[in-house]
Specification:
This protein is an alpha+beta fold. The protein has 20 helices and 33 strands. The longest helix is centred in the C-terminal third of the chain and has 20 residues.
Length: 645
């Protein structure tokens, strides 16, 4: 049962064209006439028939069309102009500041395998919900239809997708984050044999409607539905909604040859002018953008599509060409390139949920700038000392405040590499969370299987990206919320991909854990200050780059290979001109066996509750635990790095 087809009742291209003739003016009719693929026309027509917009605007990606979308966003009040030219502010509803995971569902038959971490609803019930809430939801509104590629046109891992929304803010965001492919859309759909469809409306955009807000994802018909919500993580379903469909494609249609990951892509310069490409997973709000920007050549900060090329290398593309980045903690000291874009004229930026002062300048927590006395933020009028109904201080910005902009504005962005349909040869894969007390800053898996287990065992403090989620949580591959099917199938796809015999020796992956959230308190101090600095990640990445080319030594431990002190000290001086004392190295790379064993046992217990998991996972965790227990018995609770030298 396809809800869009069933509810729209448009079954032929001729019917679709007849509907367009009644709903589109002559200018928009001329645009849609260039789209010939019957399936594309049917999806658009059925969305129109269901939502019943007053007008339809076909966005071809021309400068004229983009200007009009920005104008509509301002006229509707979805965005407001700020002091700096090209900058606007968007405020989500105060109670919708992140993904509404409790109201997000997969449409699935009872026999369909769906991730144990997700909600599900049978097709008949979902269709009734869609009918009740989306029928006529765009009356008196304009539907904007956009045609996008999630990745460079012509790339084997890029996915064509339609975005149909009544929100000019969402359409404006899509233009900054994705490649408008109106001219190539028919050809790409014909070549690939599929496309994704996204239907969204904010409706009346009222707080009282939020309990009825929903996000539905129909895996069978690769269609998303979202209503009565505005936060881009719930509504710009080109992003995480279609990422889920891409994960499905990799796991169930191309297992072992393709992956769709929640990863940044960055290039790290090494000796002799070489660039080694790295992709890294981290949950949202855990420094993924900062780590991506720490590389020398930037491609993306959030999503990655990868496959094994004919030359035996792993190739990666970014399905996006923009940033929807968290701004809390961004400052000149830790993020100079990003701050340059955000604080200097010449770049188009949509801010969301930051504070705007009386001079129409945005401010946010952690920007290391003077805090204004008053302003407007995510909850309305604000002044220093203002509290909520629980007498808690209201911060100047929400923890999930964002900036949306095109990546081309960043000095270290490589337009050439990002636009290459053949992708970049990727040697390094990192996995990290927000871990204050357990793992060292960097460690490398001894085998691809152990690397997959590092990804499976990411643990992180919860962040503000999900409404109602608190405390410490497991975050497998930082991708768990976006894995539609069984977790065991996804894990099997990981093992098969990184062990694929097509991967040739010079391109064997280096798979590593990263953690720059260790605190002084975790190593015997009395402060929650980081045991290091944000910029140190440049060194961890540089060491991994040299490791990939066999130019540094390592210490072999039960959890993997650790850096040698002399190599790190040299890189700290060379990369960031900083002294790196042996005492700091010892604190950062000592193995606290009790903590690590507890972390392993947490994973063993949690994964025991999952069905049909590859046995490799449990064997590797058991071997690591056994090795640590032996060391604990011989040496003690804390194993200093010099034990392995």
């Amino acid at each position: 049962m396809d809800p869009l087809h069933t509810l729209g009742k448009i079954s032929s291209p001729d019917q679709a064209r007849n509907l367009f003739a009644t709903k589109l003016d002559s200018i928009q009719s001329a645009k849609i006439a260039k789209i010939k693929h019957p399936d594309v026309l049917l999806r658009i027509a059925n969305a129109i028939a269901l939502c019943r917009p007053a007008n339809v605007f076909i966005n071809t990606g021309s400068e004229e069309d983009k200007d009009l979308i920005r104008k509509i966003a301002l006229e509707k009040g979805e965005e407001r102009a700020l002091a700096m030219a090209g900058h606007t502010i968007h405020f989500d509803l105060a109670d919708e500041q992140g993904r509404i995971v409790d109201r997000t569902y997969y449409i699935a038959e009872p026999e369909d395998l769906v991730s144990s971490l997700a909600n599900r609803m049978p097709p008949e019930k979902a269709a009734k919900e869609i009918e009740n809430h989306m029928s006529g939801i765009m009356e008196n509104l304009t539907m904007i239809v956009g045609f996008y590629m999630r990745g460079p046109v012509g790339s084997p891992a890029a996915n064509p997708a339609l975005e149909l929304t009544s929100s000019a803010y969402i359409s404006h965001s899509a233009e900054l984050l994705y490649r408008n492919a109106f001219d190539d859309f028919d050809h790409e759909v014909e070549q690939k044999g599929y496309f994704f469809t996204n239907v969204h409306s904010e409706g009346r955009n009222r707080t009282e409607d939020l309990p009825h807000a929903r996000v539905f994802m129909d895996r069978k018909y690769q269609t998303t539905y979202a209503w009565k919500c505005t936060y881009a993580g719930n509504t710009l379903l080109l992003k995480k909604g279609n990422h889920r469909f891409a994960v499905d494609k990799a796991v169930y249609r191309n297992r072992g040859n393709e992956l769709s990951e929640h990863m940044f892509i960055t290039g790290i310069n090494g000796p002799g002018g070489r660039t080694t490409w790295c992709a890294g997973a981290a949950p949202s709000g855990c420094g993924k953008t900062t780590t991506a920007m720490a590389g020398n050549v930037f491609i993306g900060d959030d999503l990655a599509q990868m496959w094994i090329a004919q030359d035996g290398s792993i190739r990666t593309i970014n399905p996006e060409n923009g940033i929807f980045g968290i701004v809390e903690g961004l400052n000149v000291e830790g993020d100079p390139l990003l701050m340059k874009v955000l604080r200097q004229p010449g770049c188009e930026v949509i801010w969301s949920n930051v504070l705007v002062d009386k001079k129409f300048k945005p401010h946010w927590v952690g920007n290391m700038e003077p805090v204004p006395e008053t302003g407007i933020n995510f909850q309305g009028e604000w002044h220093q000392g203002k509290t909520n109904n629980k007498a808690e201080p209201i911060p100047i910005s929400h923890p999930n405040s964002r900036c949306t902009m095109a990546s081309k504005n960043l000095e270290n962005y490589s337009s050439e590499a990002a636009a290459n349909p053949e992708g970049v040869v990727t040697r390094i894969f990192t996995y990290s969370g927000r871990d204050a007390d357990t793992m060292p800053p960097v460690w490398v898996a001894k085998t691809p299987d152990a690397g997959v287990v590092i990804g499976a065992c990411i643990v992180s403090a919860s962040t503000a990206t999900e409404v109602g989620v608190k405390g410490i949580k497991r975050a497998p591959w930082a991708n768990a919320p976006f894995i539609p099917g069984a977790l065991g199938d996804y894990m099997d796809a990981q093992f098969k991909f990184f062990n694929n015999p097509k991967i040739k020796e010079p391109f064997k992956p280096v798979m590593a854990g990263l953690n720059y959230f260790l605190t002084h308190r975790a190593r015997g101090g009395d402060s929650d200050k980081l045991l290091g600095e944000k910029q140190d990640v440049k060194v961890w990445l540089a060491w991994l780059e040299r490791y990939a080319h066999n130019e540094v030594g390592y210490l072999s431990t039960p959890i993997g290979n650790l850096p040698c002190y002399n190599d790190l000290a040299e890189l700290f001086e060379q990369i960031i001109d900083k002294d790196y004392p042996r005492s700091l190295y010892d604190m950062q790379f000592a193995l606290y066996t009790v903590k690590i064993i507890q972390r392993i046992e947490l994973q063993q217990k949690a994964y025991t509750n999952e069905e049909h998991l590859p046995e490799k996972l449990f064997k590797i965790l058991a071997a690591q635990k056994s090795g640590l227990l032996d060391l604990k018995k011989k040496v003690g609770d804390v194993i200093m790095p010099d034990y392995f030298e």
